[in-house]
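Dataset card, provenance and construction

Sequences and ligand SMILES were collected as paired inputs. For each pair, a complete structure of the chain with the small molecule in place was predicted and serialized as structure tokens. The example below shows a pair involving zinc ion. Curators did not alter the output after generation; any descriptive sentences attached to a record were derived from the structure itself.
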Amino acid sequence: MKFKCDFTLEHYFETLEHAQKEFQIGPVKKFLKKQENEKNIFLRHDVDFSLDYALELAQSEEKHGFYSTYFILLHSDFYNPYSVKGREIIKKIVSLGHEIGLHYDTRFLSNDMQKSKEQIKNQVLILEDISSSCVRSASPHIPSETQKIGVNLNELNILNVRGEKILRDVFYISDSGRYWRNGCMCNHLENQNNIQILTHPIWWVENSRSIKKQLDLFIEKESTNFIYNIGDYKKMVTRLLTELNAPKENLEI
Ligand SMILES: [Zn+2]
Ligand SMILES: [Zn+2]
């Protein structure tokens, strides 16, 4: 089997469809129930940029019959899981059959171990509340730039997908920075029995040809969203000011 490797959904799904002849494919929580003689692929996505892209990928995966784990940041510079829209999208991803995990950022954790444990517990509770689902897995955001987590997540009954046990038993590959360090995901099906595949939705959903092109598309998409949200605000405030019989010049918005 030799595919043309690129960052397209076509390649993502042809690889998984080929793999499913031999592998059980599913979200990372399946690692906890892994059988000895089974071949497994654990699918995971770190949602670093956009919940819209995450939902698009979640819908495509569901159409193809694949389910994975979407790791959500509570401290993103680019999206807000607490917003009405963010919450709706996260619940939708769950309703499609995917798992939600906590994408933690250690820059928001205390150096005091006990405090930091409480903070992780709270973040899990918040994400469970937002997603109306059970959160049992966690992944670190930009581990290359941030401190390693001090808390032992096992003690909190949380699977650390970068923890020692899973990394020992399961071959790990990632597309971070839109670059496969050890070659494309399709290259490892023949020589590994268990694989954790981390992909970031942004690099896949638009079938883009470069990191630059993808980031430009993201800026365009977010500007449109922003203009739309401002439009909503204008409508709301116009209704309010009209009801209040505000002077005409106040309605020039
Ligand atoms: Zn490939
Ligand atoms: Zn991340």
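Derived descriptions for this record:
The first strand starts at residue 24 and ends at 27.
Residues 37 and 193 are 9 Å apart (CA to CA).
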